[in-house]
DNA sequence: AAGTTGGTCAACCGCAGGTGC
DNA sequence: CGCACCTGCGGTTGACCAACT
């Protein structure tokens, strides 16, 4: 016997949300929070919806800090960079783009950014023979397990970037934008850093930008 | 004007992992 | 330890709209 369904599909509404439903959900969450229980929330809020549907609606559309559309060049580059290194882990990618959701980033990538980056890739390869990470999208990897990016010295050392990180290429570029704390957390989360602790960050110790010697090779990414 | 095609995006589905009992 | 429940995630679908034929 399989698992019980999360809700009684016969008695829940599906499809697009109406303004009334949005209002009910927004009012309830703003007043009571989610209570850590999305399953029970619909009945409490007076909605005939599945808890998962409510959660999705709130996270992807109703949350007050949500941004829709209007992606900047910086966001494009960041999405592309992270995607190339970790694949389609949209929640991780979205966590580095304030106001963006995984669903939004995923849709944006699938509908626009992938083509944009491919076009950029083609134009870049027609003008130069050198391959940089920005211009070497993996042809296709829909699953994390298939992700095998060759370690590239260029990735870390081709750039002339911000002060103090001039030997870290593209990563250094992001350092200038996000700062040490953001980047150390990001790299650690992505599995680039061999050891968060050994960097002596967060306890007053000196923070050193990662080099090839203290980064995981991409093929060993978790 | 009608039909077709392609793009966009909200929403759904099913699975994996975490957690509490 | 095993089970059930819940959340979060990534892939996919389908409705809607605009552009094109």
Automatic annotation (TrEMBL):
Residues 123-139 have a biased composition (Low complexity). GO terms for cellular component: nucleus. It is found in: Nucleus. Residues 116-163 are annotated as: Disordered. Residues 9-66, 72-117 form the HTH myb-type domain. It holds the Pfam family Myb_DNA-binding. One of its GO terms (molecular function) is DNA binding. It comes from the Eukaryota. InterPro entries: Homeodomain-like_sf (IPR009057), Myb_dom (IPR017930), SANT/Myb (IPR001005). Keywords: DNA-binding, Nucleus, Repeat, Transcription, Transcription regulation. Residues 9-62, 63-113 form the Myb-like domain. SMART domains: SANT. This is Uncharacterized protein. It comes from Dioscorea zingiberensis.
């Amino acid at each position: 016997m399989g698992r019980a369904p999360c809700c009684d599909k016969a008695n829940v509404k599906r499809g697009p949300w109406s303004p009334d439903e949005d209002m009910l959900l927004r009012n309830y969450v703003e007043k009571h929070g989610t209570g850590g229980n999305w399953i029970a929330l619909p009945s409490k809020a007076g909605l005939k919806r599945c808890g998962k549907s409510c959660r999705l609606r709130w996270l992807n559309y109703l949350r007050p800090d949500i941004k829709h559309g209007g992606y900047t060049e910086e966001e494009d580059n960041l999405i592309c960079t992270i995607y190339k290194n970790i694949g389609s882990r949209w929640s991780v990618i979205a966590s580095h783009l304030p106001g963006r959701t995984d669903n939004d980033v995923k849709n944006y990538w699938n509908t626009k950014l992938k083509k944009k980056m491919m076009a950029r890739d083609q134009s870049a390869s027609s003008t130069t023979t050198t391959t940089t990470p920005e211009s070497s999208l993996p042809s296709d990897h829909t699953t994390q397990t298939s992700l095998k990016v060759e370690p590239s010295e260029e990735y870390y050392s081709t750039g002339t970037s911000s002060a103090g990180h001039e030997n870290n290429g593209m990563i250094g570029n992001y350092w200038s934008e996000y700062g040490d704390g953001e980047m150390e957390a990001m790299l650690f989360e992505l599995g680039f850093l061999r050891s968060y602790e050994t960097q002596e960050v967060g306890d007053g110790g000196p923070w050193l930008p990662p080099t090839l010697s203290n980064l995981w090779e991409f093929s060993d990414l978790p």
